[in-house]
Structure formats: C-alpha cells, structure tokens
Design brief:
The chain has 587 residues and is an alpha+beta fold. The strands form twelve sheets. It has a five-stranded mixed sheet with strand order 5-6-1-7-8, with no helix packed on it. A four-stranded antiparallel sheet has the order 4-3-2-25, with no helix packed on it. Strands 9-10-11-12 form a four-stranded antiparallel sheet, with no helix packed on it. It is flat, with a radius of gyration of 46 Å.
Length: 587
C-alpha cells in the first residue's frame, strides 16, 4: 500500500436513540472497530453505534464532552482531518486537513480548556498539536516534541495539572515522559524495567498514571504509579496478548487486544495474580479489529477543584497524623494529671457537658494544642479556610504547601530566572532560547568569562577563551594562528616554483643545431627521402649528429659542447666550420 497515512476526523455524537433528557448519560465506554464506533454502558450493554463511511481503518479516539465532539485517527485514509455531523442520518464529511505522507497517528487526546488536539505520530517520531476552535476552521498543526529514534505511541492528558504524558516504545530506550502543554518542563517519569510500553492513561479521580508494557511479545504488564512516577505498582501480568489502547474509569481498567480480538477489563484494585475478564469480544467480526477505547469518566467533565480539595484533605490528614504522633511521643513521659480537661490551649473553651475542648479554627487536639498552620506552608502564608489550612505562596513557589520552586534548575547557563504570571521566565546573559539553553554566540560567552571574577557554570567552563587587554575571542585567536601557517606555506611554494623555473629555462637554452639539405642523388642512393621531392633529390636533416652517413654526408662533432660557457664567438666559429665542411662534402 501507499505510505501509511494519518487521519483525524471529528464529528458530533448525538445518536437518535438517546433519551429526550439531554443531561442523561448515554454511554460509558466508546470502542473503535474498523470504520465503526460502538458506545457501551459499564455493564457491557450496547447503547449506540455509528459508521463513518469515509473512514478506512480508525485507530485513536478522543472526546470533548463540552461540545459532544469525538475525534478519530485513521491510519489508511487519504484525508488527515475531517468532520462529521451525526445529528442527521444522512451526514456528509467535511475535510479539515489534507493528509501528509510518512505519517502514522496512533494516540489522540483533546484538551477542552485550550481546545487543542494532540497526537503522537509513530513514523515521524513526534508529538503534534493543533488548535481547534469551536467555530471556524482549525489552525495548522505545530510540532510539540521531536522524538527521533524513540517511537512514541500512546498519549494521555492530565487535565487538572495541564500535563501531557506519552510512552516511547523503542525497546532500547523505552520510557514514560511528560511535559507541560506548551512543551516546556519535559521530564522522564518512568525509565526502569520497561521493555516496550504501548499505551498510557490518566485516572484523574485518584491522580494515578497507568501504562501497558508489552514484555518481549509474550507477557503483558499493566502498571500504575503516582503522577510523578512514585509508588509504582504491578496490576496485571497476562500472557499471549497484543495490547493496543488503554482506558480507565472510576472502577476498572480496559484495554484492546489484537490476539483475541477483544476488550479486556480488570478492577483498579487488582493485584498481579488476578485474571482479567473479557469485557467484549469481536472475534466474529472478520472485517476489523478493536483498537481505540476511551472511558467517559476520564475525558468528560473533570471537577479539578473537587480533586484538589480531596488531595488537600488527604495531605492534611496525613500531616495532622504526623503532628499528633510527634506530640504524643513528646508527652508520653508526662503525667496524666498534667493533661486534664480543666483548661484548653490557644483560646479554646471547655464544654461543660463532657469536659472536652472546643478549639477555634486552625487548632486541633484534645487540648487544642496542635496548630494546623504550624510549618504547613513551606514558602508562603497560611490561612484557615473552612476549617482547613490554605497556603498563599510567595513569588516563585507553587503547590498545595508552596513546596515547589518554579525557578529551580529551570534557566540554564547562569541566566536569571523570574516568575511572571505564575510561569518561570529566563533572562539570558550570553545564550538564547526559552531556558537560555543555546550557546549561539561564543564571542559573548568569552567576553563574559574574561570579565567575570565569579565561578562560572561547568557547562561553559570548558570553553577555551583567550583573555587579554583586548579580550580576544576564540575566533580572532584562531585567525591569528592560521594566518602565519598559510603565509609560510605560500612562501615555500613560491621558492619551489622559482627554482623549477630556473632549471627549466636553463635546459631550454642548451644549444641545438638543426639544418636541412636538399641534395642530388648523384648516383648515390639516399637513406632517407620524401615522396614529394623530385626523383633526383633527397632531404637530409643534421642535428648535432656524429658517426652518421646520410647521402654520403660526413658528420663532425662540434667542439661547442666542450667550449667554455659564455664564449659566443667560439660557438659561432665552430658552428660555421661545421657548416662549411658539411656544405663542401654534400655532393
């Protein structure tokens, strides 16, 4: 076939079988099979289906719950992006983006906040993004990450923290990575004990990261961890499957499998020894295999504020437990009579009915002795909100407890970092780029190194700069070194040419005698003759010859070869004598 192409198509999902109440939830899972899409409830009941006539082989799938829009990728269609409106039975497709060669889109996700579609391209080894406005044409795709030699496959979005995750399936350099939605802050989350990760999913409710690892094509592992890669757990260790896509909802994990042509599931609290259950089989469908799968719980309306409050309460409960444990350890040696309920600390008051302390907001404990805000906010101000501590972070810090420094290790090459609109911004000294990562001007680097007296970063300390009164740069130093070398080479070459010219000219001035005679045969047969001469004549050429008998003409050895150099008169006399003798004996 032609180079495998990529296709992303959009259409509005409003099936005719939906109830009149538009707020009613009509499906929990969406599964892609060939050019079809099936909608199922959590118990496996089919609630709707649709066929995309223009599609060939659908793969990735994403969903926007706000506008009820679903996005697909097609690995064999001639169109890269098109949309379908399923509000009517006879819908037509609208191409949005023409296909590009050497492209193979597998993973697909949509961010409803920025209305941005992200996808992974396995052949181009890249993560791409495209803004899709609610009204109007989509913008041109742009490159988010160039992942040469890493083979990106599945991708997922952490909507609450604005992070994008993806897996690199190159088994020599496999990993799970993440970055911000603008491409900054790229880090490796999981690196060890991975063979060929294929898919990744985010559980927003429990703030967990899930991924599938195809171990040498025999065993399949499904693992999870915190969003930062900590507390890694093995959930499923199945055999003889070929997984493609992964989805997670409030209760279970789902993945598609090409070997059995099925959708498998297992509870989220499963352990490595549990056996997965076949959720849906497509073995009777000979036309296509199940591929993309999404769970509406993790792509629908995510209440990030409620998730943050839940996380904060969990962190507070853990923190309070540690504080109480520390306080109890300090008071184990104190007599019980010293901790009576006759008084309450920190302006708490005694309940006369049971003698317990009623603490004011911000304090807990039997005697109101524990201050919730004590050391709670690491870099910020703590206040009590609805009975719980809340932090207002200082500039440059974020996090529930202001524990994360935005500028830490963000700006490179000794640049200055500042926080603007809760984002780190770098002021470069001698480099360029968003993080000052590009040392594009060596002259500026050397000027800085020659002028500063402070320790310099290790990344530029190896640069060889020559510092002096004129602050010479590397370029000028190299020029001053190479010019004498080239000058000496040219001088030697000139001398060689002069010497060779002298000897060539000397050899050219060596005396040569050349004379031609036309003589009569006179009864003597010449040794050489030319056809064009008359029959009674021959031509003789004499050139410093000796001991030759041509047309009975004697040869004489001229003495000029042994004459004193520079004696022109002697040469002329010997030449004339030779010619006279030759002419007198020619015939």
């Amino acid at each position: 076939m032609t180079p495998r192409d990529c296709l992303v198509l959009t259409f509005t999902i409003i099936l005719g079988i939906l109830a009149t109440d538009t707020n009613a939830r009509s499906w929990d899972l969406a599964i892609v099979i060939g050019r079809d899409i099936e909608f199922l409830s959590r118990n496996g009941t089919l609630t709707g289906e649709a066929k995309i006539a223009e599609a060939v082989s659908l793969a990735g799938v994403a969903y926007d719950d706000t506008t009820r829009t679903m996005y697909f990728s097609d690995t064999r269609s001639n169109v890269s992006i098109f949309s379908n409106d399923l509000t009517s039975k006879n819908f037509t497709s609208k191409p949005l983006f023409k296909r590009q060669s050497k492209s193979y889109i597998l993973g697909l996700v949509f961010d409803p906040k920025t209305r941005t579609l992200f996808w992974s391209d396995a052949l181009r080894s890249s993560i791409m993004k495209m803004h899709v406005p609610e009204n109007g044409e989509p913008e041109e795709p742009t490159l988010l990450h160039d992942l040469k030699h890493l083979s990106p496959r599945g991708i997922a979005l952490d909507l609450c923290n604005s992070h994008i995750y993806w897996v690199n399936s190159n088994n020599t350099n496999s990993s799970v990575e993440r970055s911000n939605l603008d491409g900054s802050g790229r880090i490796t989350v999981i690196k060890e004990n991975l063979y060929e990760p294929l898919a990744v999913a985010i559980d927003h409710a429990e703030e967990k990261l899930y991924w599938i690892d195809d171990v040498e094509g025999i065993r399949v592992k499904i693992e999870r961890s915190n969003l930062d890669g900590s507390q890694r757990e093995l959930l499923v260790h199945a055999k003889h499957q070929q997984p493609l896509y992964l989805a997670v909802d409030r209760e279970a994990i789902y993945w598609s499998d090409l070997v059995f042509r099925s959708i498998w599931t297992t509870p989220k609290n499963a352990t490595a020894g549990d056996v997965p259950t076949e959720f849906k089989s497509y073995s009777s469908n000979q036309d296509a295999n199940p591929t993309g799968i999404i769970a509406r719980d993790n792509v629908g309306s995510i209440d990030c504020a409620a998730i943050a409050r839940h996380r904060q309460k969990a962190n507070l409960a853990s923190y309070s437990a540690k504080v109480v444990e520390s306080f109890n350890n300090l008071t184990t040696s104190t007599e019980e009579s010293d901790l009576t309920t006759e008084y309450c600390l920190n302006e708490g008051h005694v309940d006369v009915t049971d003698g317990s302390c009623h603490c004011k907001p911000g304090f807990v404990g039997t005697h109101c002795e524990i201050e919730l805000c004590l050391n709670y906010c690491l870099y910020g101000t703590c206040t009590i909100h609805e009975g719980w501590p809340s932090c207002k972070c200082s500039d440059g810090f974020v996090g529930p407890r202001c524990e994360t420094e935005l500028c830490k290790d963000y700006c490179l090459h000794d640049s200055q970092c500042s926080v603007q609109n809760e984002k780190p911004v770098c002021t470069c000294k001698y480099s360029e780029g968003p993080r000052c990562e590009l040392l594009s001007n060596i002259t500026k680097v050397c000027e800085f190194l020659c002028e500063t007296t402070e320790p310099v970063p290790a990344s530029i300390s190896a640069i060889n700069c020559r510092c002096g009164e004129s602050n010479e740069t590397i370029e000028s130093y190299e020029c001053r070194t190479l010019l004498p070398i080239f000058g000496a080479f040219i001088a030697v070459l000139t001398i060689v040419i002069i010497v060779l010219s002298y000897y060539v000219n000397k050899l050219r001035k060596r005396p040569r005698i050349r004379k031609r005679f036309i003589v009569s045969k006179g009864g003597v047969t010449p040794l050489t003759s030319r056809p064009q001469l008359p029959d009674n004549q021959c031509e003789i050429t004499i050139e410093n010859c000796c001991n030759m008998n041509i047309c009975e003409t004697p040869c004489f050895e001229p003495k000029l070869r042994t004459a004193t150099p520079g004696s022109n008169s002697t040469k002329k006399e010997e030449k004339n004598s030779l010619l006279d003798n030759m002419e007198g004996n020619s015939w």
